[in-house]
Specification:
By secondary structure, the protein is an alpha+beta fold. It contains six helices and 13 strands. It has helices spanning 28-34, 54-61, 70-80, 86-97, 175-178, 233-237, and strands at residues 6-10, 16-23, 43-52, 116-121, 128-135, 139-146, 149-157, 161-165, 188-198, 201-207, 214-222, 225-232, 249-253. The longest helix has 12 residues, at 86-97.
Length: 255
């Protein structure tokens, strides 16, 4: 399959661009480059864009906020919309109401149900020092300790658990693709669910539903040791383009 092509054509007025082609993970860097070239308002014409995926949308909304001319962007989008179709809208609402995230496959129970664990983590590049785990009947709570500060993730077992987290590295940020987010980073909304793949392997999906990204996080238990493996959704889609930068964490039970 050939890579998408995007042409960014400067308009007659400074800061005005016409976009032609497709915007996806391969062409998103061209969007990020626009904000580095101007200090005035930016106006983007999407009328010749034939495709845009979630990475492309992410690139657009993460253009420097003071530069993006929202009024002009909305005007161009509104110009492309046809007349309101009440029947189509009703069909869309019915379809969306029936959608649900698939739960991770595996068992909801293990020999670790109802138990708590505390691990000292080996030195690593993301600074995790400890990990505390608590398995309930249908939940798992993870508490990462980094530089004396705690970061919690509440995960459902056999169900999705909704929450927020400020754990560093979540959601995965692909700054080489879309430029660094300019807004201050706050808590990230996350839905998490997990299942036991076998007696010693607990695997979770962390879905950052206000972004295009997610993580697969796997806990591998062995005697008094623990291994934590992170795999972001972008690496799963295009490992050659973006490798997982977070290390495999290894720890020993705290005594």
């Amino acid at each position: 399959m050939s890579k998408a092509q995007l042409e960014v054509v400067p308009g007659e007025n400074a800061g005005h661009y016409t976009l032609r082609g497709e915007i996806d993970l391969h062409t998103a860097p061209q969007i990020a480059e626009i904000s580095t070239e101007h200090s005035e308002k930016i106006v983007l014409d999407f009328r010749d864009v034939t495709f845009i995926d979630s990475i492309g949308v992410w690139a657009v909304v993460n253009l420097d906020e003071p530069l993006l001319n929202d009024d002009a962007l909305l005007h161009d989008l509104q110009q492309q919309l046809g007349p309101y179709d009440r029947e189509a809208q009703a069909h869309l609402h019915a379809r969306l109401a029936g959608l649900a995230l698939k739960l991770p496959e595996g068992s909801a129970h293990s020999q670790r149900d109802g138990k708590r664990f505390d691990y000292i983590i080996d030195a690593n590049s993301i600074g995790v020092q400890r990990l505390e785990l608590a398995f309930g009947a249908d939940t798992c709570r993870l508490v990462f300790v980094i530089a004396g500060r705690t970061y919690a993730i509440d995960c459902g077992i056999g169900r999705w658990r909704d929450g927020e987290t400020e754990l560093p590295g979540t959601p995965p940020e692909f700054t080489e693709l879309i430029g660094r987010t300019v807004n201050p980073k706050g808590p990230t909304k996350v839905a998490a669910a997990g299942a036991w793949k076998d007696a010693d392997t607990f695997q979770m999906q962390w879905r950052y539903y206000e972004t295009p990204f997610s993580d697969t996080v796997t806990l591998k238990f062995s005697a008094d040791a623990l291994e934590i493996v992170f795999l972001n959704s972008f690496t799963q889609m295009a490992a050659a383009a973006h490798r997982e930068t977070r290390p495999v964490l290894k720890g020993k039970a705290r005594t």
